[in-house]
Amino acid sequence: MTDEPLLRVSALSKFYGSRVGCENVTFDLWPGEVLAVVGESGSGKTTLLNCLSTRLLPSSGTASYRMRDGQWRELYRMSEAERRFLMRTDWGFVHQNPADGLRMTVSAGANVGERLMAVGDRHYGRIRATAVDWLSRVEIDEDRIDDEPRAFSGGMRQRLQIARNLVTGPRLVFMDEPTGGLDVSVQARLLDLLRGLVTDLGLAAIVVTHDLAVARLLSQRMMVMKDGHVVESGLTDRVLDDPRAPYTQLLVSSILQV
Amino acid sequence: MATPLVVSDVAKSFTMHLRDGVTLPVVAGVSFSIRGGECAVLGGPSGAGKSSILKMLYGNYAVDEGQIIVQHGGGLIDLASASPRTVLSVRRHTIGYVSQFLRTVPRVSALDVVAEPLVERGGDRETARAKARSLLAQLNLPEKLWALPPATFSGGEQQRVNIARGFITEHPILLLDEPTASLDARNRDVVVELIAAKKAAGVALLGIFHDLDVRDAVADRVIDVTAFAAGKIAA
After folding, report:
1. Does A201 touch chain B (CB under 8 A)?
2. Assuming Cys at both sites, which of A16, B13, B87, B194 could form a disulfide with B59, CB separation 3.0 to 4.6 Å?
């Protein structure tokens, strides 16, 4: 464990005209730490995620990232090309809908290999071998490597998207409702897989979810958002077992017991 | 002997915002310390706040007032005001916790559930599994269950997995929330032996035991939680 965070976010706000997307969000994220951002639709959690991943530029505030060489860079002052490079190499983004993160008309192997080529790998045999390895790590049979994701089930597509993101060994992964829209049994498998990969690879991750069970299983720390503001944050089990903010209490008490 | 845990003037209440912000006081003025090699037991009727105290000591419940001083990583830290990151580090290295119920994770085998805390502390997975096997055997969990996820186990089986998970590490402080509640006599005796071994190793233990036989067998002293009744102090 290092004593320096990976990401420092300070007073980040995003307004859509006079409407608040998210306002005054501040936090640090350390290497290997998984932060869950929970809240209902419209609470600003996806806006926040998009700002952090520079898919959206904030109205005010700063976010600094510690690059692999140890240098701190301000994300919103980087050039478009630099941000894109970061996005393709040191970061991953797992979309709720796999079709947004995959190229649906090229093979599964090419989906994984493409990110490797983006970081300069040109050796076909090596790329293919790495792709096979990653497909097996996300539990996709090797004989599906030449199939297009169009022919995959929802759960398989999601696992492929994860493999595509992790193949370059990113240090930070953004996930937007990674288990949304999947059957419960498929969700369980995916969660278990994500949990294992995050631990084994020591990834830092920011996971947006409205599902508190997903937050509990994957994250150590969580932020609860409502109307664009962080209403409560802390250790995940503390927030869930001893919620302090009225809204968090409402959220926690609204969970159906199985 | 060292005193790795000192609790002073801790108070806790719950504010129920969904019920017009009514405040439920739980405990106040909680003060005690635990020495290494000793097992203290929280005593008092249900609802006195025993579990709440234990949960505050693990960082699972927030603390309204007071300090919880823990010897951690060669220094002293106040758990009551520590950052989430510090609390996680304390849990990984200093304070272990055996909860009343096992929180199961889909698809993870009982053996790996038990081995996980050691692996998290940077231990080798196979060594951790070997230790997990010996603990599960000691707790008489049938070997055919080890490779299965514990979600479908009986209460007593889950509890034994939970105990093994709590006892596998060498945390200097161990919190026990009714670890014997759903065990038969034979396995209760095993837990008593495990606790005795921890005491001999200099671990500071704090527990809740409703089972009087177990309590008498392990307790060096009883901390009466009714003395910390929140109303009493306020009045």
Report:
1. no
2. B87
